[in-house]
Amino acid sequence: MTSSPEAEASGRSAANSVRRALKRAVNETSRDVGGATVLLSARGTDLADLRQHRWTGQGHSPGGRPPAGRDDVLPQGLHATDVPPTTAPSEQPLPGTPPLDVSGQVVAVLGGTGPQGRGLAYRLALAGQQVTIGSRTTERAEAAAAELGLGITGFDNARAARGADIAIVTVPWEGHAATLAALRGELAGKLVIDSVNPLGFDAKGAYGIRPQEGSAAEQAAALLPDSRVTAAFHHLSAVLLTDPAIETIDTDVLVLGDTRSDTDIVRALTARIPGLRGVYAGRLRNAHQVEALVANLISVNRRYKAHAGLRITDI
Ligand SMILES: NC(=O)c1ccc[n+]([C@@H]2O[C@H](COP(=O)([O-])OP(=O)(O)OC[C@H]3O[C@@H](n4cnc5c(N)ncnc54)[C@H](OP(=O)(O)O)[C@@H]3O)[C@@H](O)[C@H]2O)c1
Predict the structure, then answer these.
(1) What angle is formed at CA 49 by the lines to CA 46 and CA 54, rounded to 5 degrees?
(2) Which atom number of ligand 1 is nearest to the Cα of residue 235?
(3) Alpha carbon separation from 253 to 171, 236, 292 (Å, rounded)
(4) CATH match for 106-313 among 3.40.50.261, 1.10.10.10, 3.40.50.720, 3.40.190.10
(5) 125 CB contacts (<8 Å, ≥6 apart)?
(6) Which of 8, 41, 134, 273 has the smallest count of CB within 10 Å of its CB?
(7) What is the distance between the alpha carbons of residues 81 and 63, in angstroms, rounded to a whole number?
(8) How far is ligand 1, taken at its centre, from the CA of residue 65, in Å?
(9) Which cellular component appears as one GO term in the record (predicted)?
(10) Cα distances (angstroms) measured from residue 179 to each of 135, 210, 272
């Protein structure tokens, strides 16, 4: 079926007005940070959902479509199905990203018996990565590994670290220094990804703590001088990671580190989890505000009953 040039022009104009409205919506919900923009996103709040928010003023609906009967608030002549599809940010390779195959790397998740560690272990193993869970006791590690399946194994933290190429640190801040100090030998030469958020909680909610070294990541670098320390995964919700009903997690992961080849490996590992995009976000000396930003996300989650993530726009 063909359409007249007038009809096509009218469709294009309507589509352009939706694009402009979307751009306004994005600008209204984002904060400028030196040219790039940090877009706080509740789960699934990509552009498709922002469209829906403008249509309904409400939250999500299955399939990301406006409910029937709400076409009346669209520009005249434009129906929900006419809105041009968008490409998810995670499907677009960042400029200058080298193709890196990290599928053969063994990943140990230290403190992997908690929700965050389990979630990361589950997602990475699901993607085909060989994963080991570490714990202070072999029994707890084995139990968590058996529960998750997917070929995941469980050992004490030292043995897990020794057998890994990459170690992700998911212990609580309170146990961070002692855990890493004890693993200096086992982690020598390894790529370490610190995901720990030093946080305090009081009657007013969560707040970021500034460690003496500047950040948890810098404390890790100080305690592990023979390792390649990076930081990432601070803003990933354990609830989303551990929910097997969720196939894609809609968020960017800020990756920090002082060596480009290492942050590229972390970004490649991140990209193995559907929906995630690893974005280089600076050197370790800038890790504190990234770690502390979780306090803001906790406030977002409480206010909006969400599992918020982040998107960096314009890249
Ligand atoms: N939960 C989230 O949504 C989330 C999101 C992003 C980042 N994070 C960060 O990820 C880390 C882990 O979070 P989580 O909620 O999974 O924590 P968690 O459940 O409190 O702790 C994780 C595991 O660490 C071990 N552990 C507990 N206390 C320890 C100590 N004093 N020393 C050494 N190991 C200890 C425990 O394993 P064993 O008893 O088996 O050793 C525990 O299962 C935190 O630093 C958090 O800031 C969490």
Answers:
(1) 130
(2) 6
(3) 19, 8, 15
(4) 3.40.50.720
(5) 131, 148, 150, 151, 152
(6) 8
(7) 12
(8) 37
(9) plasma membrane
(10) 10, 19, 27
Nearest by Cα to 231 from 219, 223, 249, 248:
219
Structure tokens at 204: 């007013």
Beta carbons of 226 and 184 less than 8 angstroms apart: yes
Sign of the dihedral through C-alpha 106, 109, 110, 113: negative
For ligand 1, atom 25, name the residue with the nearest CA.
111
Ligand 1 lining (C-beta closer than 6 Å): 111, 113-117, 135-136, 140, 170-175, 179, 195-197, 234, 236-238
Q: Residue 51 corresponds to which tokens in the numbers above? A: 């469209």
In the chain (315 residues long), the average pLDDT of successive 10-residue segments reads 43 43 36 44 34 26 31 38 46 70 98 98 98 98 98 98 98 98 98 98 97 98 98 97 97 98 97 97 98 98 97 96
Burial 41-68 (b: 16+ CB within 10 A, else e): bbbbbbbbbbbbbbbeeeebeeeeebee
DSSP classification of residue 94: P
Residues 6+ apart with CB under 8 A from 217: 194, 196, 229, 230, 231, 256, 284, 287, 291
Which single residue is written with the structure tokens 């589509």? 15
**Dist. CA 122–CA 126, nearest whole Å:** 6
